[in-house]
Amino acid sequence: LQISGYLNLLANTIDNFTHGLAVAASFLVSRKVGFLTTMAILLHEIPHEVGDFAILLRAGFDRWSAAKMQLSTALGGILGACFAICAQSPKGAGETVAWILPFTSGGFLYIALVNVVPDLLEEKNPWNSLQQILLLCSGITVMVLLALT
What does the record give as the reaction this protein catalyses (predicted)? Predict the structure, then answer.
């Protein structure tokens, strides 16, 4: 097995830990924010996990081992949620959320800026770039509309 598979598993566990932090902290804010955050993370995670599964297969894992290892990284999300709940301040959820949500949001922004933007800039076909920018803007619009309701 190649080391890239194990590195991917470690990165995925850390990623899932931050997702668990975000989901639990969002539910501490309100049920609505919690559900919206959960849906956003699920929409992000479905293609992400498929890609990670493919990376594990290329690294030499068989399908069953790759699936088990992918499932085991989900424990990072559970640990992140438990950490957010246990870190709740006696003064209320506001102090906990005050550092968790900016921390996880910063992680998402970092991933977008480091992974997505360079690919957009290297795209040779202007139509593909325009499609990606329009989809990005539509995602932001959906988030704003959901926040207003």
Answer: Zn(2+)(in) = Zn(2+)(out)
